[in-house]
Automatic annotation (TrEMBL):
GO molecular function, one term: nucleic acid binding
Protein name: DHHA1 domain protein
Xref: SUPFAM superfamilies: DHH phosphoesterases
Matching Pfam families: DHH, DHHA1
Sequence ranges assigned to domain DHHA1 in this UniProt record: 234-312
Record-annotated membrane-spanning stretches: none
Biological source species: Furfurilactobacillus rossiae DSM 15814
InterPro entries: DDH_dom, DHH_sf, DHHA1_dom, Oligoribo/pAp-PDE_c-di-AMP_PDE
Length: 318
């Protein structure tokens, strides 16, 4: 774990530490962020340690962010977790500190930060933070409260240990977290629960998603649809994996309309890599799980056509 030494030294030397993560956070973003905050507060009670960014209502059970003034960034160590590129960092003051550290498990296409620790093979950033704690256990320890957050992050990013990035090491880390006495069933209940509005939307996704003959699927969630169900754009994250439950869906695009008419695009796949498609549309991510953006309906249509072509080519070789 020598890669973590410089980061740990920077943490030791800093008096103020501000932790950021990506916009529209999921359980791994919040679990790694809030779990790291609790861990560092336990180890260094005299330091000022904050976590910033907007927390969606449905993930409030993981914690709440701090209010940080601009002047608190002076001489601060800023750490970003679970954020592949600077465009996605929640709160654009991330570059106002004295030093910037990146800890992430996505492909390192945007190699930002003065220090970075990026392992794309890890199941989640929460898994990485636990490894970081274990690598420096002479100073850091795993508390029960932090363990629950890290476990929630791992469960979220592995789809309850179903996705390919789940490894033997992932299960070893999960076992370490469970050994602290956390209630795994509580985490499962929280991550499995849906609001009535999300439940109705999930039903519509399953009933009306469009699937072509190659197994390429897409569904568009409009602002009007969100309004009718009293849902915010940030609340649809739990539905991203829903199309994959259909046996004839091999890869899919979930478009979520933003208030300005553009679209946030979630790309997922059971076979062909879709991250290059995401990169072509102002995004990126893992081979089988990526995010992108579409400016308008024309770009939506282009992405649908591109996914269908990609699936056709993949089927010809598999």
């Amino acid at each position: 774990m020598s890669d973590t030494t410089a980061i740990f030294n920077a943490i030791e030397q800093a008096q103020t530490i501000i932790i950021h993560r990506h916009q529209r956070p999921d359980p791994d973003a919040l679990g790694s962020q809030f779990g790291l905050k609790l861990t560092l507060q336990h180890a260094f009670p005299d330091k000022r340690i904050f976590a910033v960014g907007t927390v969606p209502n449905d993930l409030g059970w993981l914690g709440q962010s701090d209010t940080v003034s601009d002047d608190q960034y002076t001489d601060a160590l800023v750490i970003t977790v679970d954020t592949a590129n600077t465009e996605r960092i929640d709160d654009d003051r991330f570059n106002q500190g004295r030093q910037l550290v990146k800890i992430d498990h996505h492909p390192n296409d945007d190699n930002y930060g003065d220090l970075s620790w990026v392992l794309p093979d890890a199941s989640s950033t929460s898994e990485l933070i636990v490894d970081f704690i274990d690598a420096h256990q002479d100073a850091l320890s795993l508390t029960r409260d932090a363990a629950l957050l890290f476990y929630a992050g791992i469960v979220g990013d592995t789809g309850r240990f179903l996705y390919p990035a789940t490894s033997a090491h992932t299960f070893a880390v999960a076992s370490e977290l469970l050994a602290t006495g956390i209630d795994a069933a509580e985490v499962g209940r929280h991550e499995n629960e849906l609001s009535r509005g999300l439940g109705r939307l999930m039903g519509d996704v399953l009933a009306n998603i469009e699937i072509d003959k190659f197994g390429a699927a897409h569904y568009v969630i409009s602002q009007a649809q969100l309004a009718s169900l009293s849902l915010a754009t940030s609340e649809v994250q739990p539905l991203v994996s829903t199309p994959g439950r259909l046996a004839d869906v091999r890869a899919w695009l979930l478009f979520v309309e933003n208030p300005d008419g553009s679209y946030r695009v979630h790309l997922r796949s059971k076979g062909p890599a879709i991250n290059e498609l995401a990169k072509a549309h102002h995004g990126g991510g893992h081979d089988l799980a990526s995010g992108a953006n579409a400016a308008d309906q024309q770009e939506v249509d282009d992405m649908i056509a591109s996914l269908s072509k990609l699936m056709q080519q993949w089927q010809q070789t598999h």
